[in-house]
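re: ur question from earlier - yeah i can do the single chain one, its not a big deal. heres the input i used so u can compare w yours
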Amino acid sequence: MRSVIGLILVGLLVSGCTGPSPTPTATKPTTPAQTGPVTMDQSMRQRLAENTVYRTWDTCALHDPEAVKKVFGGEFELLEPETFDQCVARVKLPDLGTFSVTTFVGAQFFPQDEPKSEIGGKTFLSDSKDASACSWYYPTSKQSAITLRISFHGGTQNKQPPKPACELGKEYLTTLAPIWSNPPLRSEGATEPAIALAAKDPCATHEELAKLLPQGGEKPQLQAANPYSCVVRLPVRTKTGPGGFDIRFLLADDPVAAVQRTPGQYKPIQVEGRPGSVQQKKDECQINVQAEELSIPGLNEEVPVIRVTGPDCQQTETAAKLVTKAALS
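and the output i got, formated as tokens:
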């Protein structure tokens, strides 16, 4: 087993992870999603089925810290899960320049004219912004990809990277190609701490959430832009607000600490036995629930959070109870 904390400190090799991981081509749904009280097209049904697979993949295990140090040079500083579907490796160069090398799982991707390259026997597409920024894509379906994004920050002197970002990314992918073709699973324990919320479906209660919205008009629509977000909303804005719920599973500021730090902005709340915070905003209410008492040093003491945003605090609390109960089961 390899811990994220350990990787931060000593840069252990992750690429040794093997096992019966699903290949990207296994993202096709075996059964169609039920529409129920919400409206979704075939593309969204496909998206929900794919997200089920993507949540099983260990995003940080898609990196190889030893290869990062070899390819990008400098001092390997940090490997951290920015969100459940993103993991960034940071490399500091001697001249104060810094590389951020980020992997994304389940990122929406609609290929157009991006050039293709064969790397490690696999086909990748690249999207070069300039010498300091580049993205590489390994398509996992018609609308999604595992993504590698390289960004160079030249410091106060605005220096250029030693090589164009796309060239460095291509070199790094020679090591990552076999890993990405058989993505490591979270259940294999390649990185620690294990985060239970990362395996949960934010859309699990979408039918119940739809029933909380005004009835009698058009059905609410369901959207899931990534594996850890779910939006259930009416097609048009209502007089009382956006007319829907936005669900996010993420790493964020501890809501308990937020209440203690700024009690005028956040109010305490208990949701299904878990502590959280309530914040009333203009035309909407946001509830953050501490899903686990788990923090990762180096991430500003962030914790796994269930975030529910809705039109008013009464509806949002009802929605938060539904979502939290399902996520903690």
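The first helix runs from residue 4 to 10. not sure if urs matches, ping me
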